[in-house]
Amino acid sequence: KMSAFIVDLSMFPVGLVAGRLYGQKLLSVFDYGVSPEKGFLGSAPPIERLPNYFLPWEQIMDQLPILFSGNSSGQGNLRKGPDHPLRVAVEQLPLLDATRLETLREMQRAHAVLSILANAYVWAD
């Protein structure tokens, strides 16, 4: 059985009142781009592709299952280590200017793409 209790928050420099109080500022999930309904997914659906300038990133994403398998030739000869097709493709990527990402949704897509590519690069072998 739960019992109700009252806490005098004035005795604490940081209290809990519908969120955390730090000094006098009440923080909200909205301060961090978190949706109450969808969490970190946000209220708008994510974009499916980055602008054409970032096509090299998207092209590797399109080929990721084949590149990651190590069998990019389709001939069944798997390559490993530094010659792994995914690692070769990532290392050949041009250096792109991330300041050309114009919207938050583009930045979120770029973050997801680069995170996936980095993870795949590490685990390719």
Which key terms come to mind for this protein?
125 residues, mainly alpha, two-stranded antiparallel sheet, 34% helix, elongated
Topology:
Layout: E1 21-22, E2 25-26, H1 55-69, H2 85-91, H3 104-123
Antiparallel strand pairs: 1-2
Helix pairs in contact: 1-2, 1-3
Brief summary:
By secondary structure, the chain is mainly alpha-helical. It has helices at 55-69, 85-91, 104-123; strands spanning 21-22, 25-26.
Describe this structure in words.
- By secondary structure, this protein is mainly alpha-helical.
- It is 34% helix and 3% strand.
- It is built from three helices and two strands; from the N terminus they run E-E-H-H-H.
- A two-stranded antiparallel sheet has the order 1-2.
- Strand 1 and strand 2 form a beta hairpin.
- The longest helix has 20 residues.
- The termini are far apart.
- The relative contact order is 0.14.
